[in-house]
Amino acid sequence: MSYENPGLPDVAVEDLLLYRLGGGFYRTYLATTGLTADERVLEFGCGGGTMSRHILARLGGDGRLTCVDISAFWMEKAMKRLSGDSRATFICGDITTTPLPDDEYDVIFIHIVLHDVPAADRKAIATALASHLAPGGRICIREPINRNHGMPPSEIRALMQAAGLVEVEGTAAASSSILFGHLFSGEFRRP
Q1: Could you please report the per-residue DSSP string of 159-170?
Q2: What is the spatial distance between Cα 183 and Cα 146, in angstroms, rounded to a whole number?
Q3: How many structural domains are present in the chain?
Q4: How far lies 66's CA from each of 3, 10, 14, 21, 78, in Å?
Q5: Is beta strand 181-189 parallel, antiparallel or unpaired with respect to 173-177?
Q6: Is the full-model pTM beyond 0.90?
Q7: Which residue from 44, 21, 166 is spatially nearest to 93, judged by alpha carbons?
Q8: CA 60/CA 54 separation, integer angstroms
């Protein structure tokens, strides 16, 4: 079993706990990000579309969401869940090699996914994501910071800084959840 080909327990956790019962977890976080109705959004690692549906709920008719994930299994699930919403587009592929326009997105969400990427690949991913931000655009990130499953805030900050982004003062926050443990969230802006 792997992320790209998940087993039944992984699918059940995502479907029951996150998609069906976890709405408040996502809505509360999104409320802290300042997402506006007309923004162009990229969600890196959209999985089955759980966060995506809450992003779309905050976007108006002029807002757009691009969902990107490496897993065909999860992408298919996201496409089914969000079918019929013309504001969403779906791309299955590696963000470092998938052709996406530079300077395109107002906001990029990285939500509880980067810590699962091999450490050797994280810098290239952060750099690729930063290149897709419009000037003044921002990356909103929330990651677990647990020793056994997560990454330290210092590593997140270093990756974003190496990608040419600046941390937005006052956006760093710590929280916790039953499912993910201790979490760090922050916002990084393209100058």
Answers
A1: HHHHTT-EEPTT
A2: 8
A3: 1
A4: 20, 24, 20, 24, 11
A5: antiparallel
A6: yes
A7: 44
A8: 12
Over the stretch 64-100, which tens digit does the pLDDT of each residue have? 999 999 999 999 999 999 998 999 999 999 999 998 9
Whether 2 is covered by a domain: the verdict is no
CA pair distance 191, 129, nearest whole angstrom: 14
Tally Cβ neighbours within 10 Å of residue 83.
Answer: 10
Q: Rounded to an integer, what distance in angstroms lies between the CA atom of residue 160 and that of residue 138? A: 11
Query: Is position 17 within any domain?
Result: yes
Closest by Cα among 125, 128, 124, 122 to 105: 128
Please compute Rg for the chain using Cα positions: 15
Q: What is the pLDDT of residues 8-22, one digit of tens each?
A: 556 555 655 565 557
Range of the domain at 54: 8-189
